[in-house]
Amino acid sequence: MNISPFFKVAITVIGIITVNIVSAQSENMVTVQGGTYIPLYGVDSTAVTVETFSMDIYPVTNREYLQFVLEYPEWKKSKVKRLFADGNYLVNWESDNSFGNQLAADAAVTNVSWFAAKKYCECQGKRLPTVDEWEYAAMADKSNPDARKKESYNQLILDWYEAPKTFNNSIGSTFKNYWGIYDLHGLVWEWTMDFNSVLISGESRKDVDKDSNLFCGSAAVGASDLMNYAAFMRYAFRGSLKANYAIRNLGFRCVQAKGKNNKNVTY
Amino acid sequence: MNTQLTKKIFLSLILAVGFGSLILSCAKKEKKVYESTADIPANREMIAELTSPPHVPTPVGDRKAKLLKVDMEILEQEGEMTNGVRYVYWTFGGTVPGSFIRTRVGDEVEFHLKNHPENKLPHNIDLHAVTGPGGGAESSFVAPGHEKVFSFKTLNPGLYVYHCATAPVGMHIANGMYGLILVEPEGGLPLVDKEYYIMQGDFYTKGANGERGLQPFDMQKAVDERADYVVFNGKMGALTGDNAITANVGETVRLFVGNGGPNLVSSFHVIGEIFDKVHVEGGDLINENVQTTLIPAGGAAIVEFKVDVPGTFILVDHSIFRAFNKGALGMLKVQGEKNKTIYSGELEDGIYLPEGSGIQKMPSTNGVVESEIPAKSMEEKMEFGKATYMQTCFACHQAEGQGIANAFPPLAKSDYLNADVNRAIDIVLHGKTGEITVNGQKYNSVMTAQTLSDEEVANVLTYVYNSWGNSKKDVTPAMVKSVRNK
User: Can you tell me whether residue B261 is helix, strand or coil?
Assistant: First the structure.
């Protein structure tokens, strides 16, 4: 191909700009291009626009979390306030200053409360993802930004729900998705900022005739729409949580907003 | 009307009643009758006895209503559906169906629902015995590593299903989250000799019935109601062979039978027995002399019968392909003296073949697909062969190859079998009809041609030849192939 020198310069300039943007975001994060998607509980009119943001490639690990508690001792296992984390907080850690040898250093940290996860992200200059950000990034498989209609993708997720004891697997042991993010499915559940904004009452059948957001979602679980099945389980899981719960299969990762007027967080 | 007379009658009535109650109170302590079961007081605390199927806890007898504490743990764990087929069950108390809960009317049940920390999912419980929104589901929604407590009063006697009602409800039930809770009337159900707990359920796996390995739940099949397994007590063989339930001649047997579904309705039947009594749908209505009782998904029934003669009685869902092809089969073994008046056994054996003597063939739409995972060792051959045997041969030739006298020839220490391996292969492939002599006994019946792949035939025959005192031949797929191509 014959490219004029002018274009070559232009391309180089664009390249430099891109590099600058990338280097502006924290290490081990990737950009998720914004877009519009219809969440589980929605119909066409409730499409949600997610603005571009960057997300941690991996969930936060035991090693990283140990670093955090050493730096902020009020979050050590024995020091934490019960209001912010229940009795299962870091329950499998050997001590305040060590996770011991039963847990892998590069496994996702679990048994952390929402308060703890939120604080961790804030201390890194980040925050927890919103449900929409998380769901938006997690609907990608290896090659498509939205794979929710693919049977293989859904089966993979459902299989994980049935696989026991995945919480101690190393980060990066599942697939790398379209955005370059690992382990959104297949390792642990992850905290989100507004995990309790979609209310599942616990009586899932009642949610059907309640005029709640989930009405349409549950109606959609018909023969043709298996994709929501996996999502339903995530929403049910989130619905069972309280912010001070610390659970064996629940970890987290952080995100960073792009641009000053990012509207992903609306509260 | 004469007011004087009315007064007299009234007076004498009062006297009679007063006198009557005096006598009663002398004879024994007066029994209080409550207008509503909600008024029955429950005082002392008691820990509920929970049992795994097929067992049930001790009857309530004449105990008073109590504050009954029930401790139930939810476990998500891998189990075996049938030989070689594994499945991740979600369970109440580690079994499918979940632990049996036995209460009496008026009990105040304090229910502790614990979700094991290593579980992946939140769960809850909806007990059909509960009067209140969601049957307890709303108040028991519990995250992994947590415990929820709620309480309820048992107002209506009967046998009730409980199950998980967390989204997606169908999947939680399909994975085994159901069980039975019994509410006995005041004074308890009449005592019987034997009581058992049986619950039917349908299962949907990615692979077809019998396909080996860990099988994930198949949502599409569940939606289409195409069950791969229909079983009693969570797996094939949970109530057969050594796991059969037992009784002695002359005893009365009571079965608490539930149906967890998620989809299929059960036509519960015991081959060779007539139910003397059925508590229809688990309620107060008693029907007598019933052959088959319908148990809806999410429903139950109590059936009672006296066993008069010894033998093995087969429990089935009389939607009969479920019994012989999908696993809905159990056994009640009865021991004791024969009674020739009630059942004579065979008196005469003649031949009657109105449809001609042609061999029946199982219809087959496609050729049989060879297994994707061939057996790699003798152990595997035996294992896979046993699986095929239990699915295909077991109903007639029985668990130990002993056959059934006068009907189906034995495979154990069988001279006929050991004499000619190619003949044995041929019979499995093409069936057999007419008289043969096995170990000195004459048999005259029909075996259908079996729709099995070369490898399956090789495995199952190897299993048969290497069991029960046979000649330990190793049958290979090539041997089967050469007989097939003859």
Answer: strand
